Amino acid sequence: MLGTKVSDDICHAHRTIQNQKIMISKKIAAISSLVLIVGFTACGGGEEHSSTPPGVSAEPAEVESKANDNLYTAADITFGEIDPAMVEKGRSTYDVKCQACHSTGPNRVVGPGWKGITERRAPEWIMNMVLNVDVMLESDPEAQKALEECLVRMPNQGLSKDEGREVLEFMRTL
Amino acid sequence: MKRPLIYTGTMLGIVGGAFLLMNSLPGCRPGTTKTVVTGDAAAKVYVKPGTHDEFYNFVSGGFSGQLAVYGIPSGRLLREIPVFSLDPESGYGFSEETKGMLSTTYGNIPWDDSHHPELSQTDGVPDGKWCFINGNNTPRIALIDLGVFRTTSIIEIPNSAGNHSSPFTTGNSEYVVAGTRFSVPMGDEAQRDVPINSYKENFKGTISFIHPEPETGKMSVAFQIKTPGVNFDLSHAGKGPSEGWFFFSCYNTEQAYSLLEVNASQKDKDFVMAVNWKLAEQLAKDGKGKRVPGKHHSNWWNEETHSSETTVYDDVLQLDPAEHPGLLYFMPCPKSPHGCDVDPTGNYIVGSGKLAALLPVFKFDKIQKAIADKDFEGEFAGIPVLRYESVLHGEVKKPGLGPLHTEFDDKGNAYTSMFVSSEIVKWNVESLEILDRVPTYYSIGHLSIPGGDSKKPWGKYVIAYNKITKDRYLPTGPELTQSAQLYSIDGEKMELLLDFPTTGEPHYAQAIPAELVKPREVKFYKIEENHHPYVAKGEKETKIERRGKEVHVWMTCIRSHFAPDNIEGVKLGDEVYFHLTNLEQDWDVPHGFAIKGAVNAELLVMPGETQTLKWVPSKVGMWPMYCTDFCSALHQEMSGYVRVSPAGSNVPLTAQTLSVDAEM
Fold first, then answer.
1. With an 8 Å Cβ cutoff, is A113 touching chain B?
2. What predicted TM-score, i.e. pTM, was given to this entire model?
3. How far is A17 from chain B (nearest CA, A)?
4. Is the ipTM of this structure higher than 0.85?
5. Is residue B3 assigned to a domain?
């Protein structure tokens, strides 16, 4: 609607009328910063606060433990009936750790809106983004595509495995 | 100024003697850089990019009031920790939460002169938990928690002045000590308001034993020992066989109070004072002490509320050695001793008389025997003075000029800094034989070996902390950088490896293997455990509230926006409190917060933390605020405005973040 084509599940193109004015000015800001980003990347600079600090190479064990073999696969997650208790816990975690960047509607704030997210993304992909975002951004093409579009590196918010699963349960209700 | 001619003569004598000694000692003449740096020095200090140093070096900032952290062997500066200082970069001393760390009975004191870092110990070995450091000027001791590399506890020392011989630790950090460099009259106002020439009669010292709570690091004065009016310089706890004792070097036993340069250097011998602290502890427990006036503050950082808490004490438990024989003994020690160092076995105590041409080494079992035999050569202010020859293991003859401080390796050797002759002298503790000497550039004060004042030295390096650099670095106007020098000591000969510049005066330092510290590092504060009264756990908890003239903003930040990012309805005359919570839960993502016209500083808020900046707008208009710490590609977009209206305005108080107000 408003110009730049963005992939539906990452930065939803649909804008409500009431938000148009804001989004236009946001778009201008985004475009001007995009120019900046290109400049950074060309210089090899990028983000000064990368989540994998340069010193990490001295602790290979820790990095190894986060590596691909730790990622969730489809077999690791099964969906049954939606569990209301888990949903509530997931909502609380969302309020503290996720809501600043993700709306529960369809639209992007910083990251994508979560409405219908479990229909667009596989559960294991969501779990891996929530719990192991650094590895995903290094190795997963879809995650990298999301970063290119949203331009803010998703923070690792330090959720436990249970909290991640509860957030996923909450997503199922959206 | 009585008898100036005689004093001048004495001074000339000292200088002349020093000159002769200089000429007779080959090692006293500093060599050139060429002669002392060997070919593989660079390889020995090279820490390749992306890898870590082997040791942390905690170096006092002296009159900067800070503690600096360097990596060894590279000499790379890792961090400057504000302690007795203000730090506008982090907001330390400026934020509403941290101001109280500098609270004293004299008000908030933003500066001090910090001399001696001392690492906490377990079983006599540095454990990597805390680093203590003293404040000389307004007597204080600070505790830096090595999990967070922040000052988390500061206690003011009552009935003290010039807290120099501090904050040395007992073997399990049951206590760290404080002592008086300046004796002062104590008591009520009439007792304190006395003529200077009543020094001998009215001026007293104290030795305080400060107890840090093992779990929290909260500090309190356990007990204080009243002492005669001499100047305490340095100290060290006994260990092994001498566990339970503490040793303090004393100068100005002349009890001079004018032109100390001359008048406090009259006697051939001053003292090392031996304190039976186990006995003192027992007396205190048995109620043998007296509570005497001594109002003081103890400030502690509460990690749950992210705020300082100040406890005010009105008095202190004091022990009078006149009532408790056996508490204190003096040992004669030539001449104006500075260092007072106990070897790793705990058998030997080295006094470093800075005006002496020898180093006395005392032996603990001889001290005990002399005490048992009452082998005294007299008394000083009612305290027994042990016979010098009876407590002496031996003397290191002609070690160099101006011996200041000694640390030890793990092979039975001692390393003594020589201020006047600018060198380090290596000698054997048992045989007292001088083994090696190397020049330093220039005028070395303290030196440090990792673990070198503990039971377990890691004898790989000795680091010299110099008072003068002169020609060693690019000139920077009248004031030059200060510096340290790294020497390897794992061979027979000491070898100069590296010069590195330091911030502030590198008065003293301690080093510890990095492996003992790294596992403790806190990477972020858990938001669930944040109990700050103004925390906003998520943007849903952000809000704005007026309380009369005070406006409180519960604000959050995350890459890369503030919530709220626009505030309207602030009026001239208001005081605005920004309570900023960083919602990030990952390592190395602090956010900064600055607002135009703030007369204090910025905030630098760690992940999961809440900190508060007070801001009083001075003009009507729109005031931008923004994140100062480059946080993401959209860092430059992390900003907002505060609208300030005239005092009588009726603009309603609102705060908003447009993009996330609705379920988009």
1. yes
2. 0.87
3. 11
4. no
5. no
